[in-house]
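Full entry
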Amino acid sequence: MAPAAATPGLLQNRRFLALWLGQLISALGDKLLHINAIGFAVAAARGAGGAMAQVVIWSTVPVLIVGLVAGVVVDRCSRRRIMIASDVVRAALLATLLWAAQQGFWAVCLVIALVASASCFFGPARIALIPAAVRAEQLVTANAWFAASGFLVALVGTVVGSWILALWGLSVGLWINAAVFGLSALAVSLAAIHDTDRHSQTAASLQQVAGEVRTGWQLIVRHRVVRSITLHYAFLMGLAAAVYVGLVGFAGAHATGLTGTSTLLTAAVVGLIVGGLLVHRLSHRDAAHRLMAWGLGALVVGAAGVAAVSSLAVIAVAVAVLGAGGAIYASVIDAALQRVVPDTLRGRVIATRGVLSSLVVLAAAATAGWMADHLGKAALFGVVAGAGSIVVVVVLTVAGRGSVYRAVRWFFRQIVFAYLRLEVHGVEQIPSRGAAIIAGNHPNVLDGLLLLVVSPRPVRFLIAEDMYHHRYLHGLFQAMGFIPVYRTKTHNGGALRAAVEALQRGELLGIFPEGTTSFRGSMEQVKRGVALLALKTGTSVVPLAIQGSSEVFPSGRKVPRPGPVRMRFEPPVEYGRTVADPIPESVVESTLEAIRRQILSTMRRVSPIESSGWWARSIKALRVAVSAVVVVPLSSFLTTTAQPSLDPFEERVR
């Protein structure tokens, strides 16, 4: 679907609009309820200092207890009717708050707990019902609308609720709150969504309910994708709690008070709305994990900005970036769950996810409060940025080899082209598709990195076993699809098979036939593996010559120095395919010698490099410093150029 047609289709969908309006009004009712509950609790407790804490406890504990049962009910009954019933019950319970306030603080807390229990049914039913109201390709955008508007209403509801209480008092505020829930029920009832009871007999024994709750838990634990979605959601909710605590604490500590808090919360809502618009633009062409990386990248950049500066205006901009990232991230997570989890299990999974997230939120809020008080804003948001960066790496790794490879290539490409005077000739000789082998001289350990950044296609490298099993780089090499070459012939059979299979799949293979770095340039000690691969598969070989890498990174230096490097590719050469097994030694030797001569001929075509003066090196050093300042903040957006072959959220529950 074209992006331009997506939003009108969503906004013209009456079922979606009715559901969205009902959720919007219900969210306003929740915020008014929160304010009224605090007012009644404080009044009933006669200003007791622990009233606020007890309100939080009485409104949170039901989520942990009733939430799991709510998931079972959502999966067994009509979700639209559940949302309507939840609104009606909450409106009725609010009417009893006046009576509860006369009975004492315990009665007010009991009503708060009952209202919170009724709220446990609305959220899972709403999320589970969205796929029935919109098309599959609109799920991400629809969830972005719900998220952004929900936060907007939360902000507006706080202001409106406080104004109502100040102007008319608790009693009038209570009746207005009940009326809001009634309007929400009316809006949801207008949503003409085909949603019937999923069981002919909705009544169930306690044993049946327990079994269905256990089914939801088992699905999350055993299914890889559902488990991943749940962990991502819990992580996001934990980050949101930490950010909220940190921002409110910062505003209070710097005497900005309610004005500062309102400014930062408004910036977050603006960011959420912008994130929703970006989701609409990006969801039509980007896979789920790429959108997640976009959102996480914005979270990392925003958190780093909050940690690094102290100006309220600049922090507000960083918070807006945080909000945009959160909207994108949350929308993708919800849409992934709605796509993957079957309709008959969706409510249980959503409710179980909510219970787990509530526990994470409590832990994150407590931890963030301690960090904000004892370590400061910079430490708290530095941890948030670090956690987001780690998850970016995890998303890239799960997304598959293609995304990891392109992420690494993008990062080092910025550094290499800023740090070195790299001249590349004939890169167009690399075939745009199909199998090919790039074989070149190997004067320095930088050669593989140089080939990685200049090749327009991903390259599968054959590297020595000691480098492949490097203590810190093994995981990266494995994720990028590198093939280890062992010193013993027994293990090398596996390397040869892996290389042959890669070529048969039409991939690009990178080989330095010398097997080790050589400064002489004569290529006297050439290994026979490149010839075997060319003959076994009939793949053409692209000769490569590299000059200057040993000068910019001579033996003994820990860091390369700026300098010129030249690379040259020649047209691919075919050596034919040999069916005989084993291949005659004479054929292997003659082919190997032909490949060696082609590489030497290419090396002679590379013009000599003249040494540069101190001025050129100084200019290059300045470029390196500027590049570092630009590259580091943008490194979390590495997936913007990725073209993965596998979307990790497309594996549905069978």
In short: The chain is about 70% helix and 5% strand.
